Amino acid sequence: MTQQPVRLSREDFEARLRRIGEERYHDKHPFHHRLHSGQCTPDQVRAWVINRYMYQSRIPMKDAALLSRCEDPTLRRIWRSRIEDHDGSAERPGGIERWLKLAAAVGLDRDYVASAGGVLPATRFAVESYVRFVRERSLLEAIASSLTELFAPKIHTKRIAGLLEHYDFANEDSISYFRNRLDEAPKDVAFGLTYVLDHANTAEKQEAAAAALTFKTDVLWAMLDALYSAYVEPGHIPPGAWRPGKGLRA
Predict the structure, then answer these.
(1) What is the secondary structure of 43-82 as a DSSP string?
(2) What EC number(s) has UniProt assigned to this enzyme (predicted)?
(3) Looking at domain 10-228, which CATH architecture does it have?
(4) Domain boundaries, the chain
(5) What is the pTM of this model?
């Protein structure tokens, strides 16, 4: 006989969501340990920048997909700031522009990176699956999948310190993406978490929200697995993916 899920208290459900991050967030992946401790080669850093760009560039698209299904103008008004944070404006560069600044700092041609032509197939599939998830699942699940931001400040803090300590390309200008996210993410987290806790008001909805967050951690982990396999060990770069020496600044 299948055991039916039990609705958790608000406090216990939040603790369950946070436990997902403690157990599954990609700060625990071996690639990040290498990156933050200075063990990555210049080409491994470049591969990471190229593949992570695919994810960065699709964040506004997944947020736009969420907004297209949202009937509440208050929610739309609050959520659209996420698009502005990444796309920027005529007066203020956004996260995508800051990521391309990082790409240039590590020696890559920004147009090559922006084309996403050298992205690993597994990265592309993982990112596209995330956009499709947000487009097709319930609004609660779509918003719950964004709650990996709960755990992002910790990894950004480690990344800033590790890059500045170990890599010549790192300075306050080149790593400005991560500095900005330390300021931008808290408001996103506060709203998203409150929304999920308010709207996951049945055991079934709590299960769906927790599964959505788990799915998102799997997306991020799968991207790093592909990166590690292609550029660290054993180094099997699939056809069409970026190869060292390609796409560098002139």
Answers:
(1) HHHHHHHHHHHHHHHHHHHHHHHHHHT---HHHHHHHHHH
(2) 1.3.3.11
(3) Up-down Bundle (1.20)
(4) 10-228
(5) 0.95
